[in-house]
Design goal:
This protein is of the alpha/beta class. It has a domain of about 230 residues: Rossmann fold. Helices cover about 40% and strands about 20% of the residues. It is built from 16 helices and 15 strands. Strand 13 and strand 14 form a beta hairpin. The N and C termini lie far apart (about 75 Å).
Length: about 400
């Protein structure tokens, strides 16, 4: 009976002739490829790079420039999302890489935070720990950066820029939930609908960690139809090698989640998403109450028109709370959804090159190195020096030249 069962597909193929044989060849090829996207290998970095700093929470990667100009330029530090997926989202694939796009746009010194998978020893790491390591990374690359925050990395960058304004020359926030109480989306709704005990129980079940697999299951539950549709699409395009390769690349990134420290995760849920402390001015980081008004550098806000993870309002309403003058804030609405903001071919080809141009247009800071905690910020007709002392701010008027931004 087993022999008959195993033989019947081939017998059917013979009866159907060449068309049947082709159908069965495609079917067995599909089974092989479907298995690969169900259990893919780990993701890889697309662009040549080397690790320049190994910290408790991250590996700091420097991407080898396409060409050296010989001149000094402010390093660009991409703060990759730390929300359950690999940092390779910033350097996803050849021809589909944010790092590569920035380099093509003339940015020479590109660094990326490669977040480590949390272990049991890291379960008590909190937001302050990650801010401390971010600060160490900034110091390692020279002490001043053009900072790009992607998704959850955006609120971390906003906090860092407010806490250390002298160290951030410009700030780019893409798909970043700054005002988490704005707009309407499933993340916001879930944060407010479920009690804190729900999240605490998940962390407890993970032995003090928020397991990436659990987070990925949550993302999948938002669009369950896509989980079976991807197999139908794979079968339809089984002879398209480029399509199959793209499917492999995506699943390698998507299906290899990383774990988060439970303390970090619960702190973010409670203080940032439930209580929205960042825009309310009562979030405390590294022993100081954070005010987004202390962010006075040029800011670039990018949101996705179809982003249901971080609604447009959560990104653009940052303008209301920042200390940056309105004419030094750029707001751009890009097509597509959340992930497409960082790896979408259209966004990378048409929208991120503008970010490169914008960063390069900001005049370099040639003034003597300032005391840590102070920031000289360019205004259209005057300059304000913000001297941070405890929770108070002292302002003194200075006259300087404003930065020239690309039109």
């Amino acid at each position: 009976m087993k022999r008959i069962t195993c033989f019947w597909p081939f017998a059917a193929a013979m009866e159907l002739g060449q068309a049947g044989l082709k159908m069965f060849q495609d079917y067995f090829l599909y089974l092989s490829e479907a298995n690969l996207i169900s259990f893919p290998p780990p993701p890889k970095w697309a662009t040549a790079n080397r690790v320049v700093l190994n910290l408790d929470t991250m590996l700091l990667r420097r991407f080898l420039p396409m060409q050296e100009s010989g001149g000094a330029s402010t390093p660009v530090l991409i703060h990759a999302p730390y929300a359950g997926h690999s940092s390779t989202i910033a350097d996803y694939a050849k021809g589909q890489s944010l790092v590569e796009t920035l380099q093509t746009g003339g940015i020479e010194n590109v660094f990326v935070t490669d977040w480590k998978n949390a272990t049991a020893e890291m379960r008590h790491f909190n937001i302050d720990k990650y801010l401390t390591d971010l600060d160490r990374a900034v110091e390692h690359v020279g002490g001043t950066v053009d900072l790009i925050g992607l998704c959850q990395g955006g609120w971390m960058c906003a906090i860092y820029a407010a806490r250390f304004p002298a160290k951030v020359r410009s700030l780019v926030l893409a798909g970043a939930p700054i005002d988490t109480g704005a707009g309407c989306g499933p993340i916001k709704n879930m944060a407010h609908a479920l009690p804190m005990s729900f999240y605490q129980e998940m962390v407890s079940a993970g032995g003090g960690l928020m397991h990436g697999e659990v987070m990925i299951a949550g993302w999948k539950s938002m669009h369950p139809e896509k989980q079976w549709a991807k197999y139908l699409e794979l079968y339809k395009h089984i002879e398209d090698k480029e399509y199959v390769q793209r499917a492999h690349t995506f699943e390698s990134w998507y299906e290899h989640p990383i774990d988060l420290p439970g303390v970090f995760y619960l702190q973010a849920v409670q203080q940032l998403f439930k209580e929205n402390r960042l825009v309310r001015g009562n979030f405390v980081a590294l022993n100081r109450r954070i005010s987004l008004k202390d962010v006075a550098c040029p800011v670039y806000l990018m949101a996705g028109r179809g982003d249901d993870i971080t609604p447009v309002e959560q990104v653009f309403r940052a303008e209301k709370y920042l200390g940056t003058p309105k004419d030094r804030i750029v707001k751009v609405l890009a097509p597509g959804g959340h992930i497409g903001l960082f790896m979408g071919t259209q966004t990378l080809a048409e929208y991120w090159p503008r970010v490169s141009e914008w960063i390069r247009s900001i005049e370099p800071d040639t003034s003597p190195k300032r005391a840590r905690g102070a920031r000289i910020c360019e205004f259209p007709t005057r300059q304000v020096r913000v001297v941070v002392s405890g929770q108070n701010r002292e302002r003194k008027g200075l006259i300087i030249q404003k930065p020239r931004l690309a039109s």
